[in-house]
Automatic annotation (TrEMBL):
InterPro entries with a match to the protein in the record: Aldolase_TIM, Ribul_P_3_epim, Ribul_P_3_epim-like, RibuloseP-bd_barrel
Entry keyword set: Carbohydrate metabolism, Cobalt, Isomerase, Manganese, Metal-binding, Zinc
Signal peptide location: none
GO MF: D-ribulose-phosphate 3-epimerase activity; metal ion binding
EC top class, as a word: isomerase
GO cellular component: cytoplasm
Single biological process term from Gene Ontology: pentose catabolic process
Cofactor(s) named in the record: Zn(2+); Fe(2+); Mn(2+); Co(2+)
Protein name: Ribulose-phosphate 3-epimerase
Binding-site residues, a divalent metal cation: 37, 39, 70, 174
Function description: Catalyzes the reversible epimerization of D-ribulose 5-phosphate to D-xylulose 5-phosphate.
Record-annotated active site: 39, 174
Organism: Leptotrichia buccalis (strain ATCC 14201 / DSM 1135 / JCM 12969 / NCTC 10249 / C-1013-b)
Lineage: Bacteria, Fusobacteriati, Fusobacteriota, Fusobacteriia, Fusobacteriales
Length: 212
């Protein structure tokens, strides 16, 4: 069994109560979350549109959480400079950029950590030659664009394979994460857990503790 890394909980803002976002993020931070996962959707790469820079910027001054910005957008390069002003990690999809290495270097030029997301059907080979320049790989455990989807169990092998390739890189998972699937992905080698519907459905303290 692969040795587990320290688990980091990243509540997904997408499923929080938008009428009281400041209170929501203050609460999860108080209860032990370390990251805030921010899904930016363009209605093109994924069917839905979520929120953009103005919303995230307005929240930045109210939180000390690591802002983990997940760009679910086509050709993300034109957005990176704007999001770099208030993010700590910027994650792009390997499928959404024509020149992944160039995008990685652009993010690094702003002094931000780099994440690369892989959809369920995207093989690890697409990041093989860029791994040394990536801080975190986001393994999508559902198809992107919608909350509340069912965890895809085949992704456990993908996580295991990545952990064998690189023992130190952060492996984030997003999609269908709850107390049961959290145990499975941690055993496989993931250490950053994104959870939205599960955490924000009530009793935040119990939910966050159950993921650790």
């Amino acid at each position: 069994m692969i040795k587990e890394k320290r688990t980091i909980i990243a509540p997904s803002l997408l499923t929080a109560d938008f009428s009281k976002l400041k209170e929501e993020i203050t609460e999860v931070e108080k209860l032990g979350a370390e990251y805030l996962h921010l899904d930016v959707m363009d209605g093109n790469f994924v069917p839905n549109i979520s929120f953009g820079a103005p919303v995230i910027s307005s929240l930045r001054k109210h939180s000390n959480l690591v802002f983990d910005v997940h760009l679910m957008v086509n050709e993300p390069d034109y957005l990176i400079e704007g999001f770099a002003q208030f993010s700590d990690i910027i994650t792009v999809h390997a499928e959404a950029t024509k020149h992944l290495n160039r995008t990685i270097q652009l993010i690094k030029s702003f002094g931000k950590k780099v994440g690369v997301a892989l959809n369920p059907s995207t093989p690890l080979d697409v990041i093989k030659y860029d791994l040394d320049n990536i801080d975190m790989v986001l393994i999508m455990t559902v198809n992107p664009g919608f909350g509340g989807q069912k965890f895809i169990p085949e992704m456990l092998q993908k996580i295991k394979d990545l952990r064998k390739i690189n023992e130190n890189i952060d492996i984030e998972v997003d999609g269908g994460i709850n107390a049961e699937t959290a145990k499975l992905v941690k055993e496989a080698g993931a250490n950053v857990l994104v959870a939205g519907s599960y955490i924000f459905s009530g009793n935040y303290k119990e939910k966050i503790e159950s993921l650790k």
